[in-house]
Amino acid sequence: MTDSNDEYPIAPPAPLKGRGAVTNLQGRYEINQREAFDDGWVLSSADDDFGTPALRTQVFEERAKSILTRNASPDIPFNVSLNPYRGCEHGCIYCFARPTHSYLGLSPGLDFESRIYAKVNAAALLELELSKKSYVPEPIALGVNTDAWQPVERDRRLTRSVIQVLHDRGHPFAAITKSSLIERDLDLLAPMAVRGQVMAAITITTLDADIARTLEPRAATPARRLRTIKTLSEAGVPVGVSIAPVIPFVTEPDMERVLEACAEAGASSASFIVLRLPWEVAPLFKGWLAAHFPDRADRVMSRVRDMRGGKDYDASFATRMKGEGLWADLLKQRFHKAARRLGLNERQRGILDMSHFRRVEMARPPLPDNPQLDLF
């Protein structure tokens, strides 16, 4: 068993307003590693007379080389995904995508939620991909790694441009988000829903606004997300709720209440995922626990390990989404019992109509100035 003195910082940094991570933990690919050390000069938030400066979000434009990502994971219900952004300002402390910022030489901590990369050519790349004769259409999952409707989308509108391409080509997709901004795009989503080409899932971890404010600091409030479920449902868009992640002793007690509220709002389906702590997410999450829930941090991690074979995380396809053991089984029973009682998951979902897809051949892009001529 891990000694709690080694697991949590002696004096956790004061949380930054509007941010999930409490540190800028180094990524695992950085050459020079630094270790925090308490020399007695650490100030608590109460001692800080100067105040903590706000961390400004920076957006960097990126011209991606490709836009569709393919996977063969047996526990994921889609094969193709599209993410218009890297990094996510929502700042969810538990986000499994945080470690991807390590590939950029950045921190999976505060960098992940404050240094956002916008794939400005996302729609053009998608248009090109769909025009290829070799392209075989299948549903695309939108916004799986980072939220496609995060705050930067209000101005950038990259997700909107991607949906416009999908709408115009009759290509089905499924979206998942914590943002009410998805309502902006109902003029495109509603007609696609009539043709059976779109479905949406809204992630709600808890109904407790105070917990959500620290857990998912820049996402829509739980009450606002319920309104989004209602709005999408009334517009004819099939919508479900994703309770992800379930965090023992933090959001787990709320599971049944979340399902009840979502069913009342118009959700027709539901799913859940147990807290996942891959790579740098584990120390970041422990830092968050120490800062916000020091009274229950040990209990939370002990229960997590009970469902992960004694480890912080087990990446096995068979168990990584739902966990294993007694407590994982009890969670499954609670979820399925509540879902049946509320009439959720009664209709088959996941079948999107591919018959409306239209392939449009694009003109060959112009050659650059002074091109190098081919030999053949």
Automatic annotation (TrEMBL):
> Record's superkingdom?
Bacteria
Entry keyword Iron: yes
Record InterPro entries: Elp3/MiaA/NifB-like_rSAM (IPR006638), MJ0683-like (IPR040086), rSAM (IPR007197), rSAM_sf (IPR058240)
Residue ranges occupied by any Radical SAM core domain in the UniProt entry: 74-311
Q: Do you know which PROSITE patterns this protein is assigned to? A: RADICAL_SAM
Q: Which UniProt keywords apply?
A: Iron, Iron-sulfur, Metal-binding
**GO MF entry, a single one:** metal ion binding
| Keyword Iron-sulfur applies | yes
Entries under NCBIfam families matching the protein: rSAM_PA0069
| Name of this chain's protein | Radical SAM core domain-containing protein
What organism does this protein naturally occur in? Paraburkholderia saeva
